[in-house]
Automatic annotation (TrEMBL), chain A:
This is Xanthine dehydrogenase, molybdenum binding subunit apoprotein. Residues 22-128 form the Aldehyde oxidase/xanthine dehydrogenase a/b hammerhead domain. PANTHER family: XANTHINE DEHYDROGENASE, XANTHINE DEHYDROGENASE SUBUNIT D-RELATED. SUPFAM superfamilies: CO dehydrogenase molybdoprotein N-domain-like (SSF54665), Molybdenum cofactor-binding domain (SSF56003). It comes from the Bacteria. It comes from Trichlorobacter thiogenes. InterPro entries: Ald_Oxase/Xan_DH_a/b, Ald_Oxase/Xan_DH_a/b_sf, Ald_Oxase/xanthine_DH-like, AldOxase/xan_DH_MoCoBD1, AldOxase/xan_DH_MoCoBD2, AldOxase/xan_DH_Mopterin-bd_sf. Signal peptide: none annotated. GO terms for molecular function: iron ion binding; oxidoreductase activity.
Automatic annotation (TrEMBL), chain B:
GO terms for molecular function: FAD binding; oxidoreductase activity. This is Xanthine dehydrogenase FAD-binding subunit. Residues 9-185 form the FAD-binding PCMH-type domain. SMART domains: CO_deh_flav_C. Keywords: FAD, Flavoprotein. It comes from the Bacteria. The keyword Flavoprotein applies.
Automatic annotation (TrEMBL), chain C:
InterPro entries: 2Fe-2S-bd, 2Fe-2S-bd_dom_sf, 2Fe-2S_ferredoxin-like_sf, 2Fe-2S_ferredoxin-type, 2Fe2S_fd_BS, Beta-grasp_dom_sf, Diverse_Oxidoreductases. PANTHER family: OXIDOREDUCTASE WITH IRON-SULFUR SUBUNIT, XANTHINE DEHYDROGENASE IRON-SULFUR-BINDING SUBUNIT XDHC-RELATED. This is Purine hydroxylase delta subunit apoprotein. Keywords: 2Fe-2S, Iron, Iron-sulfur, Metal-binding, Oxidoreductase. One of its GO terms (molecular function) is 2 iron, 2 sulfur cluster binding. Coiled coil: none annotated.
Amino acid sequence: MNASALKIGTSHPRGDAVAKAAGTERYAADLYPQGCLWAGAVRSHQACGRIISIDTTAAAALPGVVKVLTAADVVASNRQGIIHKDMPVLCDDLVRYCGDPLALVLAETKEALQRGMSAVQLQLEPLPGLFDLDSALAADAPLIHEDKPGNLLAQASICKGTGLDGFDACSVVVEGSFSTPVQAHAFLETESGVARLEEDGGLLMEVSTQSPFRDRFEISHALGIPWGKIRIVAPSLGGGFGGKDGATVQCLLGLAAQHADGRWVRMQWDREESFKAGYKRHACRMEYKLGAAADGTLQALHAKLWYDTGAYAHLGAEVMELGMEHAGGPYRIPHTLIEGWCVYTNNPTAGAMRAFGVCQATFGFESMMDLLAAKLGMDPLELRLKNALVRGDENCAGMRLTTSTGIKTCLEQLQQHPFWQDREVWKAASPAYKKRGIGLASVFNAAGYGGGVRDAATAKIELTPEGTFLIHNAVTDMGQGNSSAFLQIAGHILSQDASRVLLKQPDTRTAYPSGSSSAGRTTYTFGKALITATEELKARLLNWAGMILFLQDNDGLELQPGRVLHQPSQKEVSLVALAGYMQPEERVCLGQYVAPTCKEVPPTAKGFFIGFPHVIFGYGAHLVRLEVDSLTGQLTVCDYLAVTDGGRVLNPGMFDQQVQGGVAQGLGYALMEDFTVRDGVVKTPDFATYLIPGSLDIPEIISIAAQGEPEETGPFGMKGIGEVAMNGPLPAVANAVADACGVRLCHGPLTPQRVLAGVKG
Amino acid sequence: MWATMTQCTDRCKRQISFPVTIEELFAVQEQQPEARIMAGGTDLLVALRHGPQDTRPIICLERIEELRRIDELPDNSVSIGAAVTFGSIVRSPLLKARYSLLTQAASTVGGPAIRNMASIGGNIVTASPAADSLPALYLLDAQLELRSTTGSRTMAIAEFMLGPRRTLLQPGEIISRIILPPAQDWSIQLFEKVGRRKSLAIAVASLAAMLRLAADGTVVEARFAWGSVGPTVLRCPAAEALLKGQPLSEAVLTEAAALVQDAVSPIDDIRASADYRRTVAGNLLLRLVA
Amino acid sequence: MTIRFNLNSIPTECDCPSDRRVIDLLREDLGLTGSKEGCGTGECGACTILVDGVPKLACLMLAAQLEGTQVETVEALQQTDQGRALMTAFAEEGAVQCGYCIPGMEMASLALLRQEEPLNREQIKEGLSGNLCRCTGYVKIVDAVERAVQECCKI
């Protein structure tokens, strides 16, 4: 039997890899139900305006057009949003960004849909728009949402130690202002799904989503369908990165289904619509001041962060809060004042994206560390090592760290690497008109929802009549591989090989609420619940086998692929046989888990709502080697090294996937990605203008797991590392450019134009 | 075994023809004077996606054998059919041996699949200021053969190009061939495209350079052409003249770069500022001594 | 119009509008959803197919252009040694994350394998430079193609 059991700590191929490589994996975008209708949203071409009229008559009269819906057709609140319900499914009064949906067309074909959409007549009274932080924060600025004075979605502060008084004792103080661009998720599968109304009035939807269980509440709230009657099925996603957390097509599709007489309706945004109407990473402006003693010991920090959240809330407040929680880097700083503002504008809506809030602040903070090292005349790695947090320290937000804290280990391992040891030799070998530089960044990223939110999961695993195991996954796999980790966890506990452990992707009818696939909590929280469920099932199997084999206890009994074996007697019973003996309900086990959260928000923090603070963090130390072309300002990233503390590694291959992917997305953010909006109009609506890195832009990325301690609270000692790698590239590249040519760039992305302008002076 | 698909619900919006000779092409065109000509489709089909409803017929060049050939002519010049793809150009040993400048330029177009579709004729007719093949074709003195029902005419590429998206192509006329005069013995042929990423990029600035050096290293003849720094390809005779008789050095190239920076007329757009393009246009000359 | 072509070695006859995009013909009419559409403008490569052995983009081709051609999509990989070697290498080397770019990557890679030449990593990256991936950082995709090239060059 060629069947080695799945084992924690081993690089088994992913469970979904074969189907994906064969092109047979079915994504939501691959669903074309027989006879389905096509739905499409007619969107505003103005960024800010009052609706005068929406004339649907001509469109509705076109052949092939079935229905044209407006806000008047929405019977319930017509508002969606994860926490703050401020986003209309179809606008009823105002449009707040260029792309706000005004009408929904249902048609028999894609072509008829196009004709119908262009025949809807919109009349909008233009209103002055607010397109940047300053105009939105101006005292006389019009309000984008009437109930949000000052156009502030959120405002918060953290004051630790003596706050700004901490600067009095500093020998050295550096200051800097930074900004980061809007980034698009640019997943290759655009927002898509199919839905229909069932005979009992319930809604069935198969959709590309990171949050199938929460989607039910959003749809229910907006459209008035009882959430218990909404069934969401979430197949594998063609990428998510946060952009499919919260409703994209869901409410529009649900509304379409309500008016489709039980027929299937299909909606898929094209690339341009995805860029225009999909959520984005917040642009951020930062002001930093950092002080230290003469020996480099950090003393005081003042950070001010402004996040542009666009027209609607989505998770903007939580994004700002997380950025603030990380604004001081993974370092000990006794005195901090961190202030944050999350500001509404008439730009496209910003929401969740991998390492939300944090990768902005990391650019500011890790640039400051190099500025400080330069002013102190200190080695930048020494400065980081000297101040790196260790377990028991208080972080910049005033939280005492009680869980695994591996930043020091990461930095020490980086220090031993030839890229660091041989840096001067490498730099000296620059070709003509190229300048070589090496840059560092220390990174960290919280895992879990954070304070005030129940971070729970319920896992379900069953022994099938065929003697295989089926895991009912409840947290979407958007590509990060959590479902493969679940197969490995169950296979490891049950000593089964890959062919005997199967997984069903989330279906709210057969799985249990387990939160969203996000926040570095997906494998962690559901994985813990799955361990409980699987161990219970294992105990039942051993018990049954023991009864059948007439054994007084479990001594010598072990699960093996396809069977339970009594080693001493070599007697066995197959899993198929066991499945036959067991009652159906006995073959199914549930397990649940609630992740640790902090109940006591430090008194130093003001204005925080939910999602703060956190107790578990992943850490990393990054190094980049690059060449600056002094003729063109182009950057060539030659090598990238990432040492990552994710606790114990369950699957080294998948661990590297997450790190390499995060670094690549971070390099895109560092080098080229710049979602550009002028006066509310998107200037980068496609892949010809919004550039993401190709195979020639990304170097070999070396991923090393830190030889640190396991995270005791996590499944088999792991903690989430899906986000942390995203944070390093922008500051590391900026630090390397400064190292190469003495130019400090403070505004991302670091385009050839900005680099060359810096080199020219 | 025959797999047969189900009936499509929407019927044909437009006629598409695949003439196999140029004569056939003109016959179709006479019946459908409003028809669009499609070579690789990489520009046209993107434009149709974004544009308003357009149901004009399409005439495809891809099956006209004569337009798909690369031939050496008796006088040692080389003829490239207008529908020859950039992929075919990159893979042609003949072109690589004699006109490596064009091979280099062709290899920077889009990505591999785009190069297998996009044609050199389309690149010329589209007349984008950022067209990757144009600077090289200028320096190689490419002659365009234009055909219509009334006959054919030939003109230099520099004469043909009027400005962004404007050429001397007349209604009813097509580019049939690009003729490269017999290759000369150049010491250096260099093409560099500056984009915002390393593939699938639109040129922010590009330089094509050909130099003939004497045995002692002094410049006998220099030819330069720039893309993306003006309405169409830019030459700079003053910079070329400056180099003549000089050894290639950082000093003389820096001096030439200043002349170039005065001569270009770039624009600001989403990809780069005019100032950046101007600086880079000059700086690229220094690559000759890198 | 009626279009006849060979699709993954199967003679295929379609009645469809001549200007239907090939990606729609494959996915919606013929049910071959392995080829993906990521952008519709030829910028991402997710719809890469082989037409007469040459990698092309199904989002920038019209159905009529297929007349008389040999078309290969990801669904044909299982038919050949090279195709199977590619799929195995992609799966086992960890080249697959969300997987949406993978069919296009594999078809571009298949064209590389057919050159039957040893390729270094830089050449492989060049060959894949028209295919965007948002998940992997390309490292493991290049690993997979490198392995497939080595295996197939041995044969």
